[in-house]
Amino acid sequence: MASVSAADAGQTFEIISSLRYDPSLPQVILRNADSYPNPRDSPYYLLAYHRDRLIAAARHFGWEHALKWLQQDLTSFERFLDGSIPDRSKPWRLRVVVDSNGKGSVDVNPTAAFDPLNLLTPSLHASRPPNLWRVYVDSQPILPSGFTTHKTTARDDYTAARLRAGITSPAETAEILVVNPRGEIMEGSITTPYFRRRGPILGPSGQDSTEPAWITPPLSSGGNAGTSRRYALSQRFCVEGIIPQTDLVDGEECWLSNGVRGFMLGVVVLSRQPGEQN
C-alpha cells in the first residue's frame, strides 16, 4: 500500500529549495556554456530556476503572502541570499525556506569543492566523475501529491525511503529511487535520475526517435520539478519518458543531478537487499 505523507494530514510545513553558492561558477559558465540561464554572472547555481520553483510551490499551495515576497525582482532575491554567505571565497550549500506568511530564511552549510564543470550538463563537458554513486530502488511505493511535485519540509516519505536503503548520512554517495503505485520511477530522494534508453522515444525535435537517449521521468509520474532537471531538459541533454521499475538493469549506469552537486554518475544496484552493507 502506498504511504500517505504527513503533510496530507495537515502537518505544518514550509516550501524549500537547496542550491549551491560557488565563486568559480561565473567563469565556468563564461568559458563553457553559451545557453546557461540568466543571470550568467551569478555565483548561485541556477538562481532563477530556484526562485521559479519556489514561486510555483507557493502558487500551488495558495500562499499569497509568500507569492508576493517571492515575486520580487531577481536582483533583490540574490541580495537576500548574499546576506547569508559567511565567506564569499568558498562554496556553500544553501537551503532557502519560505513559510506561508512570506517569511524567508536561509540555512547555510559548508559543501565540498569539486570540478565546477560538473555543474554543467554532461553533454557540455567530457569529464567523467571519478566516483560512482550507488543507486538503489525503494521497496515501497509513494503516493504522488503536491508534496512530491514541490519540495517542502514535509519529507518523511523520502527520509523513510533512505533509511530502508541503509543511507544514514547525506555525505554518502548513495541514492534511493522512489516509485509510484504504478511501478514507475518518480525521482531520487535528493536527485533527478536519467537513464539511457533506446526508442521509440519522443525526441527534443518532437519526432519519434529510435536512437539511444537519456530519459528522465515525466512529472506525470509524480516526481519533483527540480531545477537541474529543468536545466537538463533545456540543454536537450535528456527527454522525458516513463521509466518502469521493472526496466532497470542491475549494474547499468545512470546520471543523477540536483541543485547543489550538479551532475553525478551512478550505477544501479538491484542485487542488494535494503539495509545490507556493501
TrEMBL record:
One of its GO terms (molecular function) is catalytic activity. It comes from the Eukaryota. This is Aminotransferase class IV. Signal peptide: none annotated. SUPFAM superfamilies: D-aminoacid aminotransferase-like PLP-dependent enzymes. Gene3D superfamilies: 3.30.470.10, D-amino Acid Aminotransferase, subunit A, domain 2 (3.20.10.10).
